[in-house]
Amino acid sequence: MNDQAAPVVQALRLITNRYPHALGAILGGSAAQGRATPNSDLDVAVLLPDSDTSRREVIRQDGRLAELFLHTLADVPTAFERDRTRRRGTVLFIYDQGVSLMDPHGHVSRTQAQARAVLAAGPPALTPTEWERASMAFA
Questions:
Q1: d(CA 127, CA 105)
Q2: Dist. CA 24–CA 63, nearest whole Å
Q3: What is the pTM assigned to this prediction?
Q4: 17: exposed, middle or buried (C-beta count within 10 Å: 0-12, 13-18, 19+)?
Q5: Which residues, in sequence order, are CB contacts of 7 under 8 Å at separation 6+?
Q6: Would you say 98 and 45 are in contact if contact means Cβ atoms under 8 Å apart?
Q7: CA gap 131, 16 in Å, rounded
Q8: How far apart, in whole angstroms, are the C-alpha atoms of residue 19 and residue 70?
Q9: What is the C-alpha to C-alpha distance for residues 55 and 74, in angstroms, rounded to an integer?
Q10: What are the pLDDT digits (tens) for 28-74?
Q11: CB-based contacts of 63: which residues, under 8 Å, 6+ apart?
Q12: Alpha-carbon distance 38 to 80, whole Å?
């Protein structure tokens, strides 16, 4: 197995073993961009059925850290809006730039389209308080 394929194989094995009920999964970060080193973590977004619970987990898989962003289909829009509002696109960028690991019913593809639409809309306008803080930082 080549070094580029190793993170994808590890992430897929993690999903199929730990979340056999997953509706889909996507690998993001340096592993998706082909820049992973042996010490890089795996950034994986997992779509879960609505009967499950959205959460974040950090685990070790095959000696590599894995940061898991687990969301039910119903919770994905809330997670995207939270990223947008905080101006931190962690989950949005995983879906926008990631590599699909599994997508048997098209949920990952539809979620990627949602992420791209949110990113295209841009962040919310700054509040007056945020403007003031920004002004003070450059004063």
A1: 40
A2: 23
A3: 0.88
A4: exposed
A5: 27, 31, 36, 40, 42, 64
A6: yes
A7: 46
A8: 10
A9: 13
A10: 999 999 898 888 899 999 999 999 999 999 999 888 899 999 999 99
A11: none
A12: 30
For residue 60, count other CB atoms closer than 10 A to its CB: 9
The secondary structure of the chain as a DSSP string is --TTHHHHHHHHHHHHHH-TT-SEEEEEHHHHTT---TTPPEEEEEEE-TTS--EEEEEEETTEEEEEEEEEGGGHHHHHHHHHHHT--HHHHHHHH-EEEE-TTSHHHHHHHHHHHHHHH-PPPPPHHHHHHHHHHT-
Give the number of C-alpha atoms closer than 13 A to the C-alpha of residue 120, restricted to the C-beta side.
Answer: 7
Helical pair 107-121 and 76-86, crossing angle rounded to 10 deg? 30
30: CB partners within 8 A, 6+ apart: 36, 37, 40
CB atoms within 10 A of CB 21: 8
Structure tokens of 64?
A: 């590599």
Asked if 54 contacts 70 with a C-beta cutoff of 8 angstroms, the reply is yes
